[in-house]
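Summary for the funding panel

The consortium committed to producing paired sequence-structure records for every protein in the target list. Below we show the first two records in order, beginning with the earlier of the two.
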Amino acid sequence: MKALVLDAEGRTGIVRDVPIPEPQSNEVLVRVRAIALNPVDALYTAYPLGKSGRILGSDFAGEIVVSGSSVPSSSQLKAGSRVAGFLQGACSKNDRPGAFAEYLVVPWDLVWRINDLSFEEAATISLCALTAAQALFLRLELQAPFSLSQKQPHDDLKHESISIVINGGSTSVALYAAQLAKASPTPVSLFGTASTRHRSFLSKAPYRYDYLVDYRDEDWSNQILQPNDGRGLDFGFDCISEGSTVLKTARTLRQGAKLAVVRSRQGQAWNTSRDELGVEPSYGAVWEGLGEDVEYVGMTLPANAQAREFAVAFYAWLSEGGKIVSNPVRLMPGGLEKVVKDGFTLLGTGSVNDRRMERREEEYMRPVSGEKLVYQIK
């Protein structure tokens, strides 16, 4: 089969022929039909953690070819079932393969059944939506719209309104965070930041922000509190988490509020102290949902059983009809052979301050905003 593999020395990806993987008893073999790009896919290709030969990529959608012998019939996962999920790819020092290939294997309970979405739409959901769900329901502990084994502190507050601010409202994670926040049994007043051109889009279903301000305004932290009579908000989720964004988000929160971020202080995306913030932001890696050790340079996140259990519950909710509208899709021309040349060029290395963008005239190479780059695998 064809796969996009890491060339660590060249800091790029190369399409190569590799063997089709064999599923273990608890896995399914998936024929990949679409992949969606995430900034981390480009980041850890340009700055490799792993060795050459690793299959790159995270998000996928496709159809099951074979189910392992221990996959329960109650899962409704069989040959021909349309599913989506994500793998870790080259985003860790381990040897696990990623998703940018014609076939892949994945544990059966870490995929979700695609209902009324296309492969291209479904491919945009798994990693970013789980990132948002982990932040809202595990770390901020908002009441989830699906059952969890552990009682949450806000289980008894289903009928009390909670205010949430999401910084970076048009980012991929934030688009899912807004939908999931509104899906909570707890009534949510949703505040956010975005460019003015996205304001109308984000005010409507399925996002339904109650109040939006322009993130480019220096005093947006004060502006966002005006409709709340100047009172601080209950929860904050900074979907940018770079430079001063964490501090600005923290300034919108009441004393005792909780704040989640998508990038860590340890990773040097921002360096504001806890004393200055008034709250210690909560950070976690989406990869924890895979239930495996995550190895970086000089750091290992141990396998997290709670995070895996949460991922299984979230994907079961999606399988059973949990409603999420996919991120807007920009369908890119070509397949695996165009991912690095076009897709990674558009994404850069994943930092707003570190872009590898080269000027291109093609319409599909316009700057990315509020979209996911998707390739079909034929």
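The next record, for a separate protein in the list, is shown here:
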Amino acid sequence: MKPFIAFTKKEMLEYSRSYKIFIFLILFAILGMLSPLSAVFMDDILENFMPKGVKIEITDPTNLDSWMQFFKNGTQTGLMIMVILFSGMMAKEYEKSTLINMVTKGLSRKTVVLSKFTAALILWTVSYWLCFLITLAYTKYYFPDGKTANLGLAVFSLYVFGIMLIAVLLLGAVTFKNVYGPLLLTGGFTLILFLVNIFPKAAEWNPLQLANSNMRVVQGILKLSDLKYSLLTAAIVVAVSLVSSLKIFDRKGL
């Protein structure tokens, strides 16, 4: 257990020295503020971009508009930021052969993989929930009377989807010795999820539902019973990715 804690601390220290921690926290804090502010000032923003004489009637913004922006920013921007910044979690280790001395001195390869995953998970967790809390505070301020159904489930679903992407990224990072391999694997995996949606019977098992059906959850259209299979699939993907990463890294040259 001590080697695991020590290596995880080492990973967090490297994230700090490479400014990834600060990049994550700042960007996700900005996304958290932008979500409700975009909903509040959307009318003024559109007026500035529309040609003179053209008017668009827009209903007054509500708390649902704020959460719509949150999930839009989370899936399009937040997850993209995470994938890009975590894509090189093993590349430097392979490039500089920094793990050879550690492994030859007794550090378990399993510890390396699990610590990499844990450090990335910690950073994703803190950044994501910081973003959520900021959005929640601003939304409560601007829309104090607004009500949402199953907000916790909707937010948790997107969080789980992010964990799944981290596990897939780790698998790519262990398999390939560069930054591009994890990106291509994660991109290909996401593309497959979109293709699966073509088949209606498979859609309810598709973990993509955790990232693109959040507003339907907030609006009360979907409930936990509608997402349980998607959550189960995501958990299976995480487990398979971690086990595969452990096996591949155990056989891979450093």
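Regarding this second record: The chain has a mean pLDDT of 86. The longest helix spans residues 109-142.
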